[in-house]
């Protein structure tokens, strides 16, 4: 059996990841300010916020099922888009075009020095999946590559709704 590849030729963008790891968990307003500054820089393709999940309900104990009113579970505004925070921001991973990387890292250091009054680490490398995984097939089904934005590959739990975990910000 043979298959034909009729997909249009896609432009390959060379990119790498930049991980920002602050020495403390970021408060929502601080995360908002940093994200707005970083996303105004050239070369940013996607951004991931990692950290401990902020629950909406108590999952065990005598208060099981009761709502959790965590002050950090709020909505921030990034480039004019409302983004509900679902995690305590412990690290930020940005995928940046390779030809813009040096300038991006230099400006990111300046931004973080200005905003944060504590330490942080910036590391470049590959911190996100770069190839299709089994989870992607579970989430999107067979032959999804032409139907799904390539920036989504490897990002989402197959059981989660994309609308709950992904926000497009242009």
Radius of gyration: 18 Å
The ordered H/E elements are EHEEEEHEHH
- Low-confidence segments, given as residue ranges, are 1-10
**What is the helix content?**
10-25%
Number of helices in the DSSP assignment: 4
What overall form do the CA principal axes indicate? Answer: globular
Count the E strands.
6
**Rounded average pLDDT:** 81
Portion in strands: 15-25%
Structural class of the helix and strand makeup?
Answer: alpha+beta
Largest sheet strand order: 2-5-1-6
Major sheet characteristics:
4 strands, antiparallel
Task: Quote the distance from N terminus to C terminus.
Answer: 42 Å
Summary, kept brief:
The protein is of the alpha+beta class and 170 residues long.
Could you list some keywords that capture this structure?
170 residues; 4-stranded antiparallel sheet; two-stranded antiparallel ribbon; 4 helices; 6 strands; globular; disordered N terminus
Fold topology:
Elements lengths: L14 E8 L5 H12 L4 E7 L24 E4 L2 E4 L6 E7 L3 H15 L4 E6 L8 H7 L21 H4 L5
Antiparallel strand pairs: 1-5, 1-6, 2-5, 3-4
What this model shows, in words?
The structure is a single chain. Helix 1 runs antiparallel to helix 2. It is built from four helices and six strands. The radius of gyration is 18 Å and the shape is globular. The model is unreliable at 1-10 (pLDDT under 50). 22% of the residues lie in helices and 21% in strands. The strands form two sheets. The chain has a four-stranded antiparallel beta sheet, with helices on one face. The protein has a two-stranded antiparallel ribbon with strand order 3-4. With 170 residues, the chain is α+β, with helices and mostly antiparallel strands.
């Amino acid at each position: 059996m043979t298959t034909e590849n009729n997909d249009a030729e896609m432009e390959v963008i060379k990119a790498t990841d930049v991980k920002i790891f602050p020495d403390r968990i970021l408060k929502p307003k601080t995360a908002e300010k940093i994200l707005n500054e970083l996303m105004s820089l050239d070369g940013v393709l996607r951004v991931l916020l990692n950290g401990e999940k902020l629950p909406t309900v108590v999952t065990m104990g005598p208060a099981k099922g009761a709502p959790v009113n965590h002050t950090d579970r709020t909505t921030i505004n990034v480039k004019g888009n409302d983004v509900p925070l679902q995690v305590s921001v412990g690290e930020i991973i940005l995928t940046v075009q390779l030809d813009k990387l040096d300038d991006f890292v230099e400006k990111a250091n300046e931004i973080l020095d200005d905003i944060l009054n504590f330490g942080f680490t910036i590391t470049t490398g590959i911190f996100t999946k770069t190839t299709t995984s089994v989870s992607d097939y579970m989430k999107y089904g067979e032959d999804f590559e032409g139907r799904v934005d390539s920036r989504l590959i490897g990002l989402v739990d197959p059981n989660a709704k994309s609308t709950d975990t992904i926000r497009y910000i242009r």
